[in-house]
Amino acid sequence: MAQPELDAYFQLLFRPWMSRLDEGLCEDSEFAFSPDGHAVALTSKTGIQVRDIRSGRVIGRLTGQSLASVRFNADSRFLLAAGADDIRMWRLS
User: Fold this and answer.
1) What is the CB neighbour count within 10 angstroms for residue 20?
2) 9 pairs with which residues across the strands?
3) pTM, to two decimals
4) Cα–Cα–Cα angle for 5, 11, 13, nearest 5°?
5) What domains are defined for the chain?
6) Rounded to an integer, what distance in angstroms lies between the CA atom of residue 15 and that of residue 28?
7) 21-73 pLDDT tens trace
8) Radius of gyration of the chain (CA)
């Protein structure tokens, strides 16, 4: 990746809303960016939040104590969440 592309990428990642994330979000857990670049899924001890990357607005929540791994499907319409006891598929749009 060329330097101007890297600069734009990191500007996208460091959004002002990131400093206001709920305590415990992503702490010893995972996160996943949607392939379309519009959302990020963040895990916590109580579940998963899906947030709009630009605004930081929560656009979805999935509760479950054991959900620790998250992945979006290729077109960003579904989120898969896995834990020790179950696997859940969640339609986002």
Assistant:
1) 8
2) none
3) 0.69
4) 105
5) 3-91 (2.40.10.360)
6) 21
7) 555 555 556 889 999 989 999 888 778 889 998 888 889 888 876 777 899 99
8) 14
Beta partners for residue 78, in sequence order: 91
- Helix, strand or coil for residue 81? strand
Number of residues assigned to the chain: 93
- Rounded Cα distance between 84 and 67, Å, is 7
Helical ranges in 1-93 per DSSP H: 3-13
SS (H, E, C) 30-79: CEEECCCCCEEEEEECCEEEEEECCCCCEEEEEECCCEEEEEECCCCCEE
Q: Per the structure block, which two tokens stand in for 93?
A: 């749009």
C-alpha distances (whole Å) from 49 to each of 52, 61, 92 are: 10, 5, 12
